[in-house]
Amino acid sequence: MAKSTDPIFFDDTGGAGAQFERLVAIMAQLRDREAGCPWDIEQDFASIAPYTIEEAHEVADAIAREAWGELAGELGDLALQVVFHAQMAAEAGHFAIEDVIGAINAKMIARHPHVFGAESRDKSSAQQTEDWEKIKAAERAGRAEKGVLDGVALGLPALTRALKLQNRAARVGFDWPSTAEVLDKIVEEARELEEARERLGPEELAEEYGDLLFVMVNLGRHLGLDPEAALRAANRKFTNRFSYIERELEARGKHPRESDLAEMDALWEAAKRAGVK
Predict the structure, then answer these.
(1) Quick check: 135 and 111 in contact, CB under 8 A?
(2) Where in this chain does the record put each NTP pyrophosphohydrolase MazG-like domain (predicted)?
(3) How far apart are CA 224 and CA 262, in angstroms?
């Protein structure tokens, strides 16, 4: 194994391949039982998984903010997560980083026969998406995934997983025919939630609330919207507008705790008129 005195740890030259090998060597050194970092050594797949998810969200956040100067660093953080998991897998004898890269290379070639094979590229993006889904379905069949919903990852954000589950079900005809039926279902679920407030316990109430959220995801799907992206945008807008309220209150020598709902709501409307998003 490379040691911290080797040139690979100090040489910033070289192309992508050389830099990737350097990252792999750095991770191996960090996990070295005798000379590595105690924190890195103590980690396992379960403890690192939340960081992996967090780094992926930070990549998405940088893109949403069009923070291109930050994106390279965020992508690097995400790449580190891949290398971290691969290093732990190699130590356990499961697989190595070469297997990870080799698998995705093979998958991309197999899923793009119109680029790397004999199929014609003369088809629409929609047709290519349909072909992609057929290839993925064949791959799932090869993994003995028999159910329509098999293989939809449990670790996905709940809104994203709901969308993927609904898309899978829709492919076999389990779907409302139009947006109108979805809107009717939203009204029905909202009414059930309202009626349940006084007569149901916390678990039942959470179930009704979950049903409403699930149908809201379906509405987004029928409108061609990504619910996860839409909610991220709504979160960002709320943050920016509330920050506007805080700035305006500070200019008045006040903190939100010293204000009231009427004043803050008026400032919220002012933020909307000012185009704060």
Answers:
(1) yes
(2) 43-116
(3) 36
